[in-house]
Amino acid sequence: MLPADPTDQPYRRLKERAMGLLGEFGVEHRAGFPVEMVSGGEVQRIAIVRAHQRPAGGHRRGCQGCAIA
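Structure (tokenized):
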């Protein structure tokens, strides 16, 4: 699992949220798998989950002028 953007939330809460979102998108069973073992469609769903993990606006806290990548 990739680290989330810096937040004030404890790691346990971030991990629970990430696993919940992975479950909603049907890829919870792929958590911890190397990227080479994940299909193209699963990669797309994981990217959506990662986008949902970001703070509102897509910017990192304290980062002014950061573009959404």
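Residues 1-69 form one domain. The CA atoms of residues 1 and 32 lie 6 Å apart.
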